[in-house]
């Protein structure tokens, strides 16, 4: 049996791991929420790691409020940077392999082709900077780690773009969505499956990987597909980033090159439209 500790079980990704747990009988999970395991609290971490021997820790905990982070700099740093470091230190001490989730927001979006893992980072805001500092702290602390950068996560859980668009479709007749930011939507359950595959394959090719669903789209294209699937009559207008100012600057292009993880795990990643259909039908259930 492989023993796995999952942090932030009440987050979007944490929920996806809980959904998949019963499909993986060879994996034994311990799920903790942010009050049971606060990653900024070293005593909490020590206490949880002392309860049993874990083989893996999947860290889903993060400060994810991208715009609020511009003000809440200290808190974002405490969770995304120092919290990640705390978890890495515990993994090092207890001989646990860490699988940590990071973000496309470590890049500045100036590229014109998908970002490789080796591409230069240059976060535009506090969220991306603190996530990058977390990555660096993990890499410095612990050899046995996987850092998986992903993008535009959505699922049937918590707040995300899919659920926001469906809510707006039921409330409004017309909506404007940004058409000049390009990225790859990623179904959080696909990401969770890949993480479990790394564990089941006992992969030891530690390091940084990119994972997103296949295809590049704008938020407008993503919204358009959501409304098509939902058979919504809402009028969708394409707007520009400059028409929708936000406290945090976002990368204009943040498509991730996923060939490293595809080759390492010998997987084929689903197209974003296909995964969106599955997520939508799971939402309907
Ligand atoms: N969502 C996206 O579009 C996206 C894109 C790229 C990468 N990512 C990354 O993917 C990962 C999962 O994101 P998600 O979408 O699942 O985010 P989420 O739904 O916002 O979940 C984040 C979770 O972290 C928990 N948390 C916050 N501070 C904590 C602390 N000090 N100790 C323990 N837990 C804490 C939160 O708990 P409370 O609710 O109790 O505060 C929440 O359950 C994150 O690393 C994120 O950076 C997300």
Walk me through what this model shows.
By secondary structure, the protein is α/β, with parallel strands linked by helices. The chain has one domain (2-156, 186-214, 255-270): Rossmann fold (3-Layer(aba) Sandwich). It has 9 helices and 12 strands. It has a 6-stranded parallel sheet with strand order 2-1-3-4-5-10, with helices on both faces. The structure holds NADP nicotinamide-adenine-dinucleotide phosphate. NADP nicotinamide-adenine-dinucleotide phosphate binds next to helix 1, helix 3 and strand 4.
Which strand order spans the largest sheet, edge to edge or round the barrel?
2-1-3-4-5-10
- State the CATH architecture: 3-Layer(aba) Sandwich
- Helix-strand pattern, N to C? EHEHEHEHEEHEEEHEEHEHH
Which range best describes the helical content: under 10%, 10-25%, 25-40%, 40-55%, 55-70% or over 70%? 25-40%
Low-pLDDT sequence parts: none
* Domain module tally: 1
Mean pLDDT across every amino acid position: 97
CATH topology: Rossmann fold
SS summary, helix count: 9
- Terminal Cα span: 31 Å
Report Rg: 18 Å
Strand content: 15-25%
Please state the structural category: alpha/beta
Shape: globular
**Chemical compounds bound to the protein:** NADP nicotinamide-adenine-dinucleotide phosphate
The CATH class is Alpha Beta
Annotated CATH homologous superfamily:
NAD(P)-binding Rossmann-like Domain
């Amino acid at each position: 049996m492989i023993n796995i500790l999952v942090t932030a079980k009440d987050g979007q990704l944490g929920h996806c791991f809980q959904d998949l747990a019963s499909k993986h009988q060879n994996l034994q999970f311990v799920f903790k929420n942010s009050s049971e395991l606060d990653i900024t609290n070293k005593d909490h971490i020590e206490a949880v790691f002392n309860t049993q021997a874990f083989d893996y820790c999947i860290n889903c905990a993060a400060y994810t409020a991208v715009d609020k982070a511009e003000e809440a700099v200290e808190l974002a740093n405490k969770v995304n940077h120092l919290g990640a470091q705390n978890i890495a230190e515990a993994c090092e001490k207890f001989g646990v392999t860490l699988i940590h989730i990071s973000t496309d927001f470590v890049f500045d979006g100036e590229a014109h082709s998908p970002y490789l893992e080796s591409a230069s980072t240059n976060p535009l805001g506090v969220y991306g900077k603190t996530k990058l500092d977390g990555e660096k702290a993990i890499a410095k602390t612990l050899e046995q780690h996987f850092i998986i950068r992903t993008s535009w996560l959505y699922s049937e859980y918590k707040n995300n773009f899919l659920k926001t668009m469906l809510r707006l479709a039921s409330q409004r007749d017309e909506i404007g969505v940004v058409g000049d930011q390009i990225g790859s939507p990623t179904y959080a359950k696909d990401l969770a499956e890949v993480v479990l595959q790394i564990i089941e394959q006992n992969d030891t090719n530690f390091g940084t990987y990119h994972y997103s669903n296949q295809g590049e789209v704008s938020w407008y294209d993503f919204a358009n597909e959501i409304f098509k699937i939902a058979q919504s009559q809402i009028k969708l207008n394409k707007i520009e980033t400059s028409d929708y100012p936000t406290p945090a600057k976002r990368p204009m292009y943040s498509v991730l090159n996923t060939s490293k993880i595809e080759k390492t795990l010998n997987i084929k990643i689903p197209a974003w439209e296909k995964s969106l259909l599955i997520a939508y039908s799971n939402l309907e259930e």
